[in-house]
Amino acid sequence: MALSAAVARLRRELDGRPGNGPDLAIAEEELTTLDSMVARGRYEVPRMRRSLLLIAGAIGSVSALGPALMEVRRAVDLFGEVPVRRPTGPPEPPG
User: Whole-model pTM?
Assistant: First the structure.
C-alpha cells in the first residue's frame, strides 16, 4: 500500500537525521498512528490529515525530508479530497 511505503520511507529518513528532539518524537508518534490505521484497515481521513499536519509541523524546517513528506501527503490524499472550507455566515442573496 502506498501509505505504508511512504510512512516507512519517511521513518527511515527521520532515523538517519542527527538529533532526536521532541519534534521528531511527535513525528514518530504520528507515523505510528498512520501505520496503525493501515494495519487495522480502518482509515479515519480527518485523523490522517491531522497526523500529516503534525508531522509537517514537526519536521517542516528540515528541507531534506521534503520529498519523503510529500510522498506521505500524496498517499493520504488518495483516501479523499481535501475538505473545502465553506463560509459560516448567511448565504449571499442571488444577484
Answer: 0.75
